[in-house]
């Protein structure tokens, strides 16, 4: 009996599971079908999507412009509310508000937070072909001779290679616009949400995200989630969709070395009065070789090596090195034959500037009074800014320097031969989300199945994003999902977005909204 | 008989020589008497001397200001002519004219050319306490709280520690004024000239003496002489009178190294795109150590060592190193314990400027596109600019660089890893007049006997003056005889001359005019 019962139970259980699976798969839409429906919706509404975007891009969005920031936040708030999203502004002090919104998915679903920022880099309007906040459509990129298309008589169908020129057209209003269109598309197509969605649109990223940490700390429950998807930056140079599982940390340093109190005639004092530019050359040369290798003792000690999976992913990244070198006029690259993607997985010491005396027409036969170097260190997981600071200072002391943090007075200068003034910027650590996490795998599968093509999977971006905050404060992993074109002139003049990248982004967000939740 | 004749002849000859010597020494005034007479004259005419000088200093004197240069030249011409000197202007193209004058001494006398320049360094009037061409008298130096003295109500007796503030008050109108007053003084005191005097006052020294070579070549007979005395620069820091028997040569070089064609994000490309600031640090560090030693192979091979006499003279130079270090806020000096005067007898490599990317507030997390260093080399006798150029270029090639002289095109950049663009300035060699020459000894004795004190005798100034031209073109040796105070702010704002230095200069020139010719 007992045995028969057990057999029946087993059969019943199997039946139950098969049924559940059927019910589940009935809900779970085929990702390619989803994508087709969304594309169809987009094709029917291109003009309307663009009109909404052009309005958005017309709003000046410097973080320092409080009134402008508020207008942008209000605009986004109404975008969210029009789509039935519970939305509000999260304010900290007088800073540009975060626009927050949420939309519930099926019961017991996972929660995804989508991050983007609505502020833009400062502009030098004189360098722009058209005013930065008067969006202009061109039939291709300016570099390729793109011609302006009058926005008052737009056709219903927009050319996929067209470009929209405006500050933040790519960085970083594009993902916000694409998410809104994706929501419209799945609603119209009656595709249910597969996850709970939260939206977090920041207004001061380009100014250093000064209140991000405070905001996360103030709203731990509101911002509770299973994953943060940071939508920022461009896709791969080949145009392939890309996902970053981490970012390097960063730490800035300015070094000042001292010569005589006033510039001295190099004929009368050269060879005798210490030349700080010479000292700086020796100091910098002692810190890093021309191949990128950092020579500071212990600098690589804490470095967490890449996992097998991460190394495998790197190998699959398309090799664009030769093409890049050609584009950049480089006869070689640092790293003794290592590829770009290998090199940016390592910590780096970049000299971003050096200055002493004068060069060119202004050069005088004088011994300079000071020499300065500005450096940025890029950190990888498990390095900390504090540890790096210690190692760098030990190294500088080993070179014979007395370290100060303020301008040394004459007494100090007389007491020490070599003096280095150090000014450290507050840095932050690297962050890396394992590619093996269920959520990581779910995101990859969602996009790869939906687009029917392989993603470029990078263990980390070479750039720095304070991703560690989400893990440290909210305990949530984070990944970066860029959507805009590589040649977008981000941060510079004539920033633009390629229309096809907007269309692709709409489909990707729709897949994440309507499909990803079923995969983990 | 023959023997007796020979004896008589010997006696006669001895008598003749004794007589000649007596006649000669009767003419030859005692140098201290000469000095006293000149001083007496000056004490009676201080106000008049100063009035003439203030008029002279009121004339703007930039070499680039043609009309101003002409006014200065005309003014000097009239100064000379008023003193009965045969004078004229030597013109080359449109350049500021040389004012030339001559005055004959006793028959068969030696000929001395006195050189000075009447043009001044460019001014940044905003940095001056009073307008550069409105001479102002102060009762001491500005640094010591000097108070202005109204020039409309000058007393007959001028304070010896007073200062005259104006562009070129020291550099280099002071010797011209002092020579004129010295001529007045010896004429009034009925002291005959001991040598033929020639005067050569240039008007574009601060602009690089662009026509000096041509002028010397055009007038070899007019400028024929036994010695050039170049009156420029300040006396020793201790206030002691100084003579330089040579000058270092000079050779300028600007090095440009190349990174990517456009600035690249240091996060995305750092460690891979070559950083030209790093390369420059290594290249410069390979060329010179922090102690002034040049590391370029063969750089010291041609160096002519100092003679015993020259080394002896150096040992007698007052040691001001410790005091200078204190003044300049230096806890040490280059040269591993060697003194300033020893160090400036050696060739030198001075980095006068370095520049790449940005430092300070403007620093961006970017890899710079270029890095530049501006260098001046100081050469000593027997080094040539051509040889130095070869050695430096060999060294740069040895560091792996491909050398170009114009901005490399993209193709060149793609073909070579490391590229250095070199821009050489036309340099010139060092020059050194032997301290053992009769004329050298005569000059030293004249001043030492006249002032009753030891001169500071330097084999060479550390600075560069194209003294080699006088030797090369005219076959004449040259020395430098500075007369103005050390703390004169030469080339900078608030240039000034100490009145006592003017008075001393008048006596020194009078000794040279009225006494030196008897000593060689």
Q: What's the layout of helices and strands?
A:
The structure is a homodimer of 520-residue chains.
Chain A: H1 2-27, H2 31-57, H3 66-82, E1 86-90, E2 98-103, E3 111-117, E4 136-138, E5 148-149, E6 163-165, H4 173-188, E7 196-202, H5 212-218, E8 227-230, E9 242-244, E10 246-258, E11 264-265, H6 266-269, H7 276-287, H8 308-316, H9 321-328, H10 340-343, E12 348-357, E13 366-367, E14 370-379, H11 385-398, E15 401-404, H12 410-415, E16 418-424, E17 431-432, H13 438-451, E18 456-458, E19 461-464, H14 468-474, E20 478-480, E21 496-498, H15 499-514
Parallel strand pairs in A: 3-7, 3-8, 8-20, 9-18, 10-19, 15-16
Antiparallel strand pairs in A: 1-2, 2-7, 4-5, 4-6, 6-21, 10-14, 10-16, 10-17, 11-13, 12-14
Structure description:
The structure is a homodimer of 520-residue chains. Chain A has 520 residues and is α/β, with parallel strands linked by helices. The first copy, chain A, contains 15 helices and 21 strands. Chain A has helices at residues 2-27, 31-57, 66-82, 173-188, 212-218, 266-269, 276-287, 308-316, 321-328, 340-343, 385-398, 410-415, 438-451, 468-474, 499-514, and strands spanning 86-90, 98-103, 111-117, 136-138, 148-149, 163-165, 196-202, 227-230, 242-244, 246-258, 264-265, 348-357, 366-367, 370-379, 401-404, 418-424, 431-432, 456-458, 461-464, 478-480, 496-498. In chain A, strands 10, 12, 14, 15, 16, 17 and 19 form a seven-stranded mixed β-sheet that branches. In chain A, helix 2 crosses helix 15 (499-514). The model of chain A is unreliable at 1-5 and 20-26 (pLDDT under 50). The interface between A and B is large, with 86 and 85 residues.
């Amino acid at each position: 009996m007992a045995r028969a019962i057990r057999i029946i139970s087993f059969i019943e259980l199997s039946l139950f599971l098969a049924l559940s699976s059927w019910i589940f798969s009935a809900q779970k839409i085929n990702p390619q079908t989803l994508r087709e429906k969304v594309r169809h919706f987009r094709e029917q509404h291109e003009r309307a999507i663009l009109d909404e975007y052009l309005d958005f891009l017309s709003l000046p969005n410097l973080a320092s412009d409080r009134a402008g920031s508020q207008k942008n936040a209000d605009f986004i708030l109404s975008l969210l509310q029009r789509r039935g999203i519970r939305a509000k502004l999260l304010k900290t002090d007088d800073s540009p508000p975060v626009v927050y919104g949420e939309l519930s998915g099926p019961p017991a679903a996972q929660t995804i937070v989508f991050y983007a920022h609505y502020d833009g880099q400062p502009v030098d309007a004189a360098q722009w072909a058209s005013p930065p906040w008067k969006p202009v459509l061109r039939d291709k990129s300016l570099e390729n001779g793109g011609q302006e298309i009058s926005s008052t008589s737009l056709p219903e169908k927009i050319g996929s290679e067209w470009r929209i020129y405006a500050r933040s057209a790519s960085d970083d209003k594009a993902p916000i616009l694409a998410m809104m269109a994706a929501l419209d598309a799945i609603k119209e197509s009656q595709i249910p949400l597969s996850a709970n969605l939260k939206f977090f649109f920041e207004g001061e990223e380009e100014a250093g995200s000064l209140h991000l940490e405070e905001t996360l700390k103030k709203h731990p429950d509101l911002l509770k989630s299973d994953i943060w998807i940071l939508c920022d930056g461009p896709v791969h140079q080949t145009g392939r969709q890309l996902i970053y599982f981490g970012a390097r940390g960063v730490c800035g340093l300015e070094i000042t070395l001292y010569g005589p109190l006033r510039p001295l005639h190099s004929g009368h004092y050269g060879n005798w009065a210490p030349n700080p530019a010479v000292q700086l050359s020796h100091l910098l040369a002692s810190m890093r070789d021309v191949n990128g290798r950092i020579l500071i003792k212990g600098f690589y000690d804490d470095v967490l090596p890449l996992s097998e999976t991460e190394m495998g992913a790197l190998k699959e990244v398309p090799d664009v090195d030769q093409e890049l070198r050609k584009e950049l006029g480089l006869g070689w690259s640092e790293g003794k034959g290592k590829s770009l993607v290998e090199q940016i997985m390592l910590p780096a010491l970049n000299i971003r500037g050096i200055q002493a005396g004068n060069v060119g027409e202004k050069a005088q036969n004088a011994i300079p009074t000071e020499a300065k170097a500005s450096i940025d260190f890029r950190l990888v997981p498990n390095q900390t800014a504090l540890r790096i600071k210690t190692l760098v200072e030990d190294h500088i002391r080993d070179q014979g320097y007395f370290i100060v943090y303020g301008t040394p007075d004459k007494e100090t200068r007389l007491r020490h031969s070599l003096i280095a003034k150090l000014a450290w910027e507050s840095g932050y650590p690297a962050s890396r989300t394992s590619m093996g996490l269920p959520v990581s795998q779910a995101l990859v599968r969602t996009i790869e199945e939906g687009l029917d093509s392989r993603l470029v999977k990078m263990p980390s971006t070479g750039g720095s994003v304070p991703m560690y905050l989400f893990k440290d404060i909210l305990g949530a992993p984070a990944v970066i999902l860029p959507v805009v074109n590589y040649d977008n002139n981000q941060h510079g003049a004539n920033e633009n977005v390629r229309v096809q990248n907007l269309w692709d982004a709409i489909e990707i967000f729709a897949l994440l909204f309507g499909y990803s939740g079923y995969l983990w």
